[in-house]
Batch of 3 targets.
Target 1
Amino acid sequence: MREWEEESFLFNPASGDTHLLNALSMEILGLLERNRLSAEAIVSRLAQRSESVESQLLRDHLVEYLHQFEAMGLIISDQSCD
Amino acid sequence: MRLNQLETAAIANRMHRDGLCLSVGPFLVTVSGGVKGLPELLRQMYGETTVVATPDESLVDFHIRMGPGRGLRRWWRAQAVFDTDATPPFTPFPRDHAFALFEWGLNWCIAMQAHQYLMFHSAVLERNGKAVLLPAEPGSGKSTLCAALMLNGWRLLSDEFGLYRPESGLIHALPRPIPLKNESIEIIRKYSNKAVLGPVFEKTRKGDVAHLQPSKKSLLGSDQPARPAYVVFPRYIAGVEVLLHPFAKGRAFLKLSSNAFNYRLQGARGFDAVADLVDRCDTYYLEFSSLDEAVERLQRLFDEDEQDGVGGAATGQA
């Protein structure tokens, strides 16, 4: 992973793809790198980190983010493992 | 021995017999067969290139055969055929375009096989021991600017391939003729009386093409890699004042990674290599319409940084 200014670039060795990620994406992936978390738990931890984060707005977008990460092969959801 | 120390007939002889082996940058290239006019142009364009008299066959990177067309096409609307160890995607060319076919064919060989390098579609030149990469898309004026810099004494490492070795952080030289297209041919012809141009190959798939002979200094420096200090993304826009401004590193990473021919093939090695290159180099965007202004601006960048003691390192060894 490399960062310049506000942008982060992540190489996924499994797919060979390089991804350009924003700060929120990096926060979410950072949380999931260390823990297995539900969407609710992710929202709660992000809200704790920053008071400016509006939980409902975050909740609305999070599912979309998680689906995208899964499609990019960056995370595996529990449903996929069933 | 240098190629221009051989007479054209001797070059043709070698090509017919065992093949003519040239040391082109880090590659050994054997050219065999015979097409009328090709030995003469090889001699003119690759003059100071080293000829390897008795190459160890196992060390030859590319075996290229340039032959005449088959059947009637040996005589009627005579053709030149490019052939190599792999199956190249070239249909025969008119015989008098044989040199252009050889150049494109050699590009193809390198792009398909030289994966020890991360290969950028970029011109690379060196001044005061520091190299600049000029990565660009077709139509950006890259080759024309590259030609102008070389004619102003910069050492040409390559017009087409930035051969980057991630392990050493060096760019390897591959000095070969610069293919100028369409209007650029006359622009460079008028730009400098030092410009030695080959014949104009008309109506190729890239329009009219003429090759500019690399400078003696560039060909003699064929075995000297250089450390990149700058990445400059050039863009020709008619009528604009020259503008050189810093280019965000993240954007530079995106452009460079999509510019490299074999980035995806390299996997994590490619990702790290591009990122390291972006970290080590100053990155700029150059907008220009006047060659004189663009050359002057780049020379100033190198010279100012030289005085300030910033912007790169000395020429390296492989």
Target 2
Amino acid sequence: MSGPSSYVPKLGIAKWLDARLPLPRLMYDSFIAYPVPRNLNYFWTFGGILMLMLVSQILTGVILAMHYTPHATLAFTSVEGIMRDVEYGWLMRYMHANGASMFFIAVYIHIFRGLYYGSYKAPREVLWILGVIIFLLMMATAFMGYVLPWGQMSFWGATVITNLFSAFPIVGETIVTFLWGGYSVDNPTLTRFFSLHFLLPFMIFGVVILHVWALHVTGQNNPTGVEVKAVAKDTIPFTPYATIKDAFALVLFFAFFAYFLFFIPNYLGHADNYIPANPAVTPAHIVPEWYFLPFYAILRAVPDKLGGVLLMFAAIAVLVVLPWLDTSKVKSMSYRPLARQCFWAFAVTCVMLGWLGSRPAEGIYVTLSQLFTALYFAYFLIALPLLGLFETPKKLPGSIAESVLGKMKGGSGAVVGAAASAEPNTKG
Amino acid sequence: MTLFRTSLAAFAAIMIGAFSAASLSPAHAAGGGTKPPAHDWSFDGPFGTFDRAQLQRGYKVYREVCSACHAMSLMRFRNLSQKGGPEFTEAQIRALAADFKISDGPNEQGEMFERPGRPSDAFPKPFPNEQAARAANGGAYPLDLSVIAKARNYERGFPLFLLDIITQYQEGGPDYLKALLTGYEDPPKGVELLPGQNWNKYMAGNIIGMPNMLNDGQVEYPKGADGKSPVPETAKQYAADVVAFLMWSAEPHMEQRKSIGRQVFIFLLLFAGLLYFTKKRIWSRLPEHAPGAAH
């Protein structure tokens, strides 16, 4: 996709710089002339939204770090000091806390879009794996950030999650002691989590650059999953078309964000985190933030601790090998009638796991967690490998342009084979 | 194909089974704990504000009743005059603070001394430390109330928890606290309470260390022009007033937050609208989006 550069410097200084460090050329080729498939829908705007969310988190986070005290006896009070005495401190903190949730909402939409339209398939395997790495880094960052206010859920969440590593034979206890910086979650744990919570977002930023680079090499996938064949016909320039569309979606998303931030800022949090951490009192139910709930359900589905931990890590690791698990040559589920139904069943499975993660691990909830954990893995390990072998996909459009322009002719009354192929009238 | 359809049907059956099984299973709340009734707070919803008079009354209840055992270590007297709060006048704050003796020092002789309170002082703590507080309260520890209204909630359940996003229900904490303060009952037959234990309908597990502290007529409210208090001097009213005060102390900038939020939200919606039409205009340059083309 990143063909020969069409950048022509006009000003003298631009020519001078272009011969020395062609940064303006890189920007021009990446964000102005960059060809985008003309049929992208609004699910493709979440990449840009995520970029802005990362920037927003870093900006608010840096300001919060100026006022926060990473010490077990002072952390809770310093966060409350931010809420009460720092000018617009409440805005920074609520923006950061709700921003984390918005970041995850956007990333889940982004991931499920990739799953539906087969964006993980060749030639985008590296792009996809970089995305999984970003997701992992995000989870680590969010987990450590949640510990910093040093409330009850911070403390006990940290205790439960770090304790998971003790399940590993031989090295487990050593790893946990190393994570804690001692023999229980305490001040050394808080200070190292703070340090890492500050560092990781910049690592995310680095991997995001690689992610965008890989994207600009392969080009974007699109709702048909048919690769770009003729750049002139199948694509449109990033600016102004994608820019304005992304801007519209971004502002809408920020309105959604603002609704939570200003009107229900504690809706996505847990009341117990407004109780200062107390190692002597365990909360009745320790629950992680909502975005970890499906994985928490998988963890607790297994009676064996090590098994649960391994299965939880496997739930993410399976995403890494997904490009090779899905055997179908057809990318977009729009042309895969059976896989599409499995996809929606998988989406429901994830929601159910999220709900089960918020329930106590007892009685019927454990059985249900086991059931949906099995379904979660069945999607990757049974459905996708097998469906590619016996599913009859619908006929794909000849090209992106045909899928868009063909429909137009179809609408004006002409019978065009290509247009018909996009409609659900082939055998399934 | 048949196999596939069968498995999808099985999936649907599992879903139905999951829901019905879960609805049959016992509630997981930590025993006891009736759901509190919803109170009509002045501060709920996107236009909610605190009622100044109510916050002032609430502070009076806290000061005369709760503060005997409960600290509010994050609060300073000056907070009582800040915008969006009870908005006492500066002179009132100085007088309120001066009623307290605050330990300060060391002075130039190296000794601690006592002086009258100032607006910049924190609310004095009733006990020097947790041990002293427990010793004076039969082993129970009266909690710090600074953010208690946000530190309490109750489970809303499906589908209420989703509707709460639309209705902006954020008053789980205040509703619970108000219900708790007025939720004392005689224990059911057969339940023997130990000394220092009390029975409360809304407490998780029903047994609570704190006794019923609010009784009708206990706190004298400021009189109106007719020589009577504008609100009834009842335990119910005291509970509502002190809980409103606690909600404000937990979220002192709520009014500013909602007011900025309304402006930001409306701006973003208008801006999004403009961007939508700009987007349509720009995309109409493309042939498939030209006027008259079907979509």
Target 3
Amino acid sequence: MSDRQPLVQVRNVTVQFEDRLVLDNISLEVFAGEILCILGESGCGKSTLLRVMTGLLPPTSGEVWIMGQNLWAVPEQQQRQILRHLGVLFQSSGLLRSLTIAENIALPLQMYTHLTDLEIMEIVRLKLAAVGLSGSEALLPAELSGGMQKRAGIARALALDPPLLFLDEPTSGLDPVTAASIDQLVLEFKQIFGTTMVVVTHDLESTFTIADRVLLLDRHTHTIIAEGDPHTLRNRTDHPAVYNFFNRLAKLER
Amino acid sequence: MSLTEPPFDLEQTDKHVTVVCRLPLQLSQGHRYASLWEQLQARAFEQLTVDFSHIVAYDTFLVVFIRRLRQLATDRSATLQLWGLSPEMERLLQFFEQQAGASQVPPAAAGWRRFFERLGESLLRKLEDIRAFFVFLGSLIVDLVRHPHRVRWEDLPLFVFAAGVSAVPIVSLIALLIGVILGYQGAVQLHRFGADVYLADLIAISVTRELGPLMTAIIVAGRTGSAFAAEIGTMKINEELDALQVMGIDFIRFLLLPRILAVVLTLPLLSLIADVAGIVGGLLTALTTLDFTISGYLLQTQQALNYAHVFTGIFKSFFFGFVIGIIGCFQGLRVSAGSASVGRAATIAVVTSILLIIVLDAVFAVLFQVLGI
């Protein structure tokens, strides 16, 4: 793995809110073409890590390098340029409620390309077809089910064909069948477009299906406590927290 | 790739056009192929060959590009040949072809037909709105009359405070200023006829009969009517209304009646306060522009006013309050989904209540005239 050039590098990132430590000296790399899953219990800071990597939250200390550029050290203008290379699916889809699905997906295309309206509408149709939402162009986000909203969110995140895609809990709140279909979609996009993906999740089933590599964040130490192939990690018994997480064992704190 | 390099080469021999693509077929570069379409449009050809062998970078734009080429070839009944597509490109094309093949968007109706369709649809929707409103009004009245003990009276003081007490400062200020403005305009006109003393009459009667209740109702429609619509609408989105229904609690009695009654009860009181503030505003103008004394002005006001003037205003206020409360709640219930829909409900609530208030006021004006009140 190390011979490949990392697309994203997180170096010694620490995030602290007031006196509450959320991430403690986190370093990680994302390589081109892989799907990296960031796992952890609720409140372990995995969403915070995603916010740091997607330019939403400046870290208290540390650096984030995306495609060879230091995301948090460059001027704002350049930061926006970097962010254009990545798509983000938000946990609650992040679709603009006042726009139709087609308008949501057309928005980045209108903002960042010089294509004609006709071409943009064609791209929107293709993207919607690709996520299995043909015919819902004129609907409002609120008129879609949860799974369909996630699909539309993915279509918007992919509107500009970004080489790098961040997915925040893509399968949470979905039934197993719908969740599995999202997993298939993710794998399909990886295969067809070679998109590199960082997935924040606590859905083990989905992780075993899609992940090339996983990172496990710990809620108490705020650090990465395990890294590697999910199937290997599941059978590791030397670290109780890792074992419990991958084998869904409860640890009641009473 | 330098910017001066042409995006593509185009050659024509006889009826055969050959295009060699050179620039990346990417979304960010796609607009630079715009001239290709113009050139192809302008030429006559029976065979079109497009060479992709020089393309290294590409994305979804490739798919759009090829679909457009195919469309063009079909329109011209020309044969299209694609050269040099890499296996990866083929796979990308196939992927989208597969997905998009299944979907065919139904063609939209012709312009004028669509216009009439929309017109009819919106008319039917309006009629349905009106019907729904009267159904709502009916169930509200039935509930209030038949089960008054089931209304959630505990909440009433809360809403009386929100809709009434906290509106006192803004209502008084606006009424005071209206009194001042009316006073200035009146003073100028009356002074020309030497009828200075009737300024008190002008202010007292117009404020108590019309401006006090009307301004108060408009302010409360903006403050409280919109708040009701937004509040109820949000509750509906959050499934709170469904939860009440499942628990067997009637939300009309539980949520709506306390709100509506609060406005009906407080609006007349607010109007009274507005009357007083308006008269004080007139007094301020009278003292500063004309030779009035405080006691002289008040005495003249006392003579001008009778119970009929004040009570017609108060009487109207009850109806205005009813309109504000009902329209606010009704629009809240019509919220369907999404935050935009809540905003729309609030806007419609305010606009409709103000319109209805003014229409009602006009009706009352005629009515009182006929009845000689």
